[in-house]
Amino acid sequence: METWTVVALGIVTLAVGTHAKDNSWGGLYPRESASREVRSLDGLWNFRLSPLHDPDKGFREEWYAQPMCKTGPVISMAVPSSYNDVTQDKALRDHIGWAWYDRTFYVPTRWQSDNLRVVLRLGSAHYNSIIYLNGEALTSHEGGHLPIMAEITKGVVYGKENLITVAINNTLTPETIPQGSIIHHNDSTRYPPGYFTQSYNFDFTNYAGLHRPVYIYTTPQTYIDDILVTTDIDGKDGIITYNVTYSTSQEESQHLLGVGCSIKVLNNKGDHVTSAMGCYGSILVTNASLWWPYLMAEESGYMYTLLVAVSDETGRLDIYPQKVGIRAVGWNSTTLTINNRPMYLRGCGKHEDADIRGKGLDYPLVVKDFSLLKWLGANSFRTSHYPYAEEIMDMADQEGIMIVDESPAVGLSGFGETLMNKHISVMKELVRRDKNRPSVIMWSVGNEPQSNQAAAKDYFSKVVSATKSEDSSRPVTCVLNRPKEKDQAGRSLDVILVNRYYSWYGDTGHLEVIKLQTVTEFSEWHALHNKPVMISEYGAGSIPGFHMDPAFTWTEEYQAELMVQNFEAFDELRSRGYFVGEMIWNFADFATPQGHTRAAGNKKGIFTRNRQPKMAAHVLRYHYHKVANISLIADQIPLCFTSLMSENNDF
Ligand code: GCB
């Protein structure tokens, strides 16, 4: 007999460990300026797992009170990286529960004599984390994928060694986002005593660890806490509306009386364009260079910099460089627009995923992925199924790649109040982190919830309206997959995104039904909701190097032909005026838990996990350039699939 329990490992110990307040504002990304210094804590940290059957051990033995190497064996662990795949140890790969990291670092005495504020910031720790500084609990955070910030001015010792310890628990429960369950296998004839496994309702590996960079940085005592920027266009001019919030350390709060803000707008070469005074207001940029998506204008991703300065009554300045892309997003019942022109999303569903590092930020991979997106002629991707690293979002801003920015709420069910409140908090954290990004053109509150459940109606109406109250300048969606007659979420959304796998999960092998089924389905979604619709996932698995003609499932030919059939449907739907985009699943093969429906991972990538093109990538590249009205020179298309495309009238 197996029992499914809601009591997850480590939740008890989370309570034990959490003396520190949960901090939901991750702060502005650490950037250097004339007033701010940034130091990286990335590199090799010390690492140890809590034993599977004694999850509380690290708390009981206070592993955070001194360097872990003094309380037992440690291994080196790369930061940023997931911990799962970096060693040969199966127990580490498959661990459930607490994992412990620590390292030492120095803070210069100058930071103290200069009366600076010192802040610690972790880009993400998956899933629950408790952070200790010099043996004291400093802060805690629930949920991966979003930043954690804590002031450490008083907790650090200047000019001496400091110890930072991070305890991370990857356990997912029915009340975490995303959800999961711990299954206790109690049948002693089949399992050893205490045997348990983690299950979850999504197919990507639940990688864990310190996935993104860790920094300490300084600000003056009176500092810029947040900047909100929205933009609009008026003929050839751009309008930047801004609001700067500032704060100060408690003892110095009287300084806030004399605080003032000034703004300089610089162009993308760093030259001065215009200036403004005041902590909020609007700035007119005459004859503005607009932010355009890739291939929609000669120059895409144009960004200005707002050099925001806050000074206190002593005249001391805090300066933060805030990038701004001037653009206007609009939507109605049929169309999405950018700068008053209709936009059509040619994109991919992606994952943060690579061998060895798992979900760890890896700069070469970031550059490679954007290079491949542009090679494809893609103009967008969805951050399926969680918020991506800020460094990736920076590239999207800069390269003109539009983003459907998704929360970690994948595969939700149940829809109770606790889950909803948590979901709303996550949306607030996400919007607060990414609100100023020109690349973000839509929020997605989640992927494939069980939206046929009655409770989904009220739940999504509340989550969507909470998201809109944080940001009304972008449409809000949720990626759906339930039958439209049963779905309860679509009515609350601005744009309908649907995942469909015709001739893969249904009618497998029957490529000839794709066009009819896709056109019928998406026209009905539009008719039902009178909203723009797009396909957010379609595709087929292919094992690179598997070939059969006529096409057969799992071959590169099958994946490519399935796509060509889909393109016919998309072209037809686009001509009807309400179909606003297509995103292939997936950009690259990615890791999944072991299972008989996945062959060493999900193989629906058009690139291999190592970012080499399958036949499908070339086919998509041809299609995306054609949709963008850009012709590719015939000899750039390898011969192996020109015959495939010539069978299709569209090519
Ligand atoms: C889906 C999910 C995605 C899966 C994909 C698949 O609908 O949204 O996370 O990876 O299907 O390949 O089955």
How would you describe what is shown here?
- With 651 residues, the protein is of the alpha+beta class.
- 20% of the residues lie in helices and 29% in strands.
- It contains 12 helices and 33 strands.
- The strands form 8 sheets. It has an 8-stranded parallel β-barrel, surrounded by 5 helices. A 6-stranded antiparallel sheet has the order 4-3-5-11-8-9, with no helix packed on it.
- β24 and β25 form a beta hairpin.
- α5 packs parallel to α6 and α7 packs parallel to α8 (456-470).
- The longest helix has 20 residues, at 556-575.
- The chain is globular and about 75 Å long.
- The model is unreliable at 1-20 and 647-651 (pLDDT under 50).
- Residues 202-203, 385, 447-448, 481, 499, 537, 585, 602, 604 line the site of (2S,3S,4S,5R)-3,4,5-trihydroxy-6-oxo-oxane-2-carboxylic acid.
Task: Name the hetero compounds present.
Answer: (2S,3S,4S,5R)-3,4,5-trihydroxy-6-oxo-oxane-2-carboxylic acid
Share of residues in strands: 25-35%
* Average pLDDT, all residues: 93
Distance between the termini: 57 Å
What helical percentage do the residues reach? 10-25%
Low-confidence stretches: 1-20, 647-651
Overall geometry comes to globular
Radius of gyration from the alpha-carbon trace, in angstroms: 25 Å
DSSP E strands, number: 33
Please state how the strands of the largest beta sheet are arranged side by side.
26-27-28-29-30-31-32-33
Please describe the biggest sheet, giving its number of strands, its sense, and whether it closes into a barrel: 8 strands, parallel, barrel
Class by alpha and beta content: alpha+beta
Count of helices? 12
